[in-house]
Amino acid sequence: MRSTATFEPDVSSRFQRLLTQRKQTRKTLLNEVMRRGLDAVETAEVELKPFVLVPFESGPILDTRPPSVINAELELEEMMESLRRSSAA
């Protein structure tokens, strides 16, 4: 079958690069590229599976306690660490 097609510049340059690398005729290379592309499209349509997101428990993401409580807890941890360091020395 003969037909005429207009390729976009990026496709044309990629095709020309392949043509130079593989040293095949335009007809042979075009048929190979078309077959691979069609195979990929047909296969993708059949093999596409829905993406399933599996949730997992990661714990609280946002600490909802008041800032004063969080600050007091951090200060306590800092004091405890300071006491551990001074008693170890």
Describe the fold and architecture.
With 89 residues, this protein is an all-alpha fold. 65% of the residues lie in helices and 0% in strands. It is elongated, with a radius of gyration of 32 Å.
Rg for CA atoms: 32 Å
β-strand amount: under 5%
Global shape: elongated
**How many β-strands, per DSSP?**
0
Major β-sheet annotation: none
Give the distance, in angstroms, between the N- and C-terminal Cα atoms: 89 Å
Count, helices? 3
How confident is the prediction overall: mean pLDDT?
A: 88
Structural class: mainly alpha
In short:
By secondary structure, the protein is mostly helical. It has three helices and no strands. The model has no long low-confidence stretch (mean pLDDT 88).
Give short descriptive properties of this protein.
89 residues; mainly alpha; 3 helices; elongated; single chain
Ordered list of secondary-structure elements with their pairings:
Elements: H1 9-22, H2 26-47, H3 67-88
